[in-house]
Amino acid sequence: MELMFLFLILPFFIYWCVNEKAGLQLGIVALLSIWAIFLYRQLDEHLPVNFDFRWIIIAVIFCGYLLLRNKIEALLAKGGFRAFMIGAAAVSFIMILYRPDLEFVFPGGIMLGLCAGYCLNKRYIGFKAAEVLQRTGVAKYLTLLVRFFLGMVVLLLIVFLTGIIIEQFSESQNVQLYGFIIFVLIGLWVSAVAPWVFVRLRLAGAVFDAEWNKKNDE
Length: 218
Prior knowledge:
Blueprint (H helix, E strand, L loop, with lengths): L1 H6 L1 H9 L2 H25 L9 H44 L4 H24 L11 H32 L6 H26 L9 H8 L1
């Protein structure tokens, strides 16, 4: 499972250092791909052909995202915070319902935490990846490097502790629940807590979407 975290490094980097919206979208595509790969592993032994479909699955998910991205964004924009969270929760639990093993809880939990944190960020934190407080040149890139380094150090620490906790509770009937909570917290760290830390440490500026917040106040 640690290898799957490597698959998410690029989306996390983009979220923290380039564009938070693009990072979220790429993270969702990565998590859906991870889930599909786990599902493929479960079904592989029952398939009548001896062919590795994993890269085809990832390509199909990515192409589907590109085709439907604008429609999904328009739909969520109409519903605001509630629609976004209901949609994220529904997708997350569908990912888990097939078989609530840790392999499926992993992408489902991070999906829910990532989307919830993104909404919290837009509502209360205002982190913008492109906002570096008027820094330019070397100072700008050093700021982005510090952001990524700080975010990843804490994330890797959480992943390390997650492995220990899950191992300690591996015999418990509630291990999947513990894992789900931890994975949700990992998603929240990436999309909300780390951005809040960046803003507080003046590694990023805060820019709120007044129109989005007004819509959700109504």
